[in-house]
Amino acid sequence: MKQTIKKTARISLLTALVLSNLSWKAIPTNETNPPLLTIKGFTFQDFNRNGKLDPWEDTRLSADKRIEEIIKQMTNAEKAELLIGTGMPGIEVLTGPVGDSKQGLVPGAAGGTAAFERFGIPATVVADGPAGLRIEPTREKDSKTYYATAFPVGTALASTWNKTLLEEVGKAMGNEVKEYGVDVLLAPALNIQRNPLNGRNFEYYSEDPLISGKTAAAIVNGIQSQGVGTSIKHFAVNNEETNRLTINAHVSERAIRELYLKGFEITVKEAQPWTVMSSYNKINGTYTSDRKDLLTQVLRDEWGFKGIVMTDWFGGFPGFESIQKGLSSDVVQQMNAGNDLLMPGIPVQKKALLEALNSGKLSQEVANTNVRRILEYVFRTPTFAKYKYSDKPNLTKNAEVTRNAAAEGMVLLKNEKNTLPFADKQKEVSVFGVTSYAWITGGTGSGSVNNKHTVSLLEGLTAAGYKLDKELVDLYKPYAEKEVTADNLRKKSQGILALPERLHEMKMDDAFIAKKAASSEIAFVTLGRNSGEGGDRVVDNNFNLATEEIEMLDKISNAFHAKGKKVVVILNIGGVIETASWKDKVDAILLAWQPGQEGGHSVADVVAGKINPSGKLTMTFPMKYADTPSAKNFPGFPVANPKDVTYEEGIYVGYRYYNTFNIKPSYEFGFGSSYTTFDFTDVKLSSPTFNDKLTVSVTVKNTGKIAGKEVVELYLSAPSKTIDKPKEELKAFGKTKELKPGESETLQLTLSPKDLASFLESKSAWIAEAGIYKVLLGASSLDIKKTAEFSVAKEITVEKVKKAFEQDSKFTELKP
Question: What pTM value is reported for the model?
Answer without folding.
Answer: 0.95
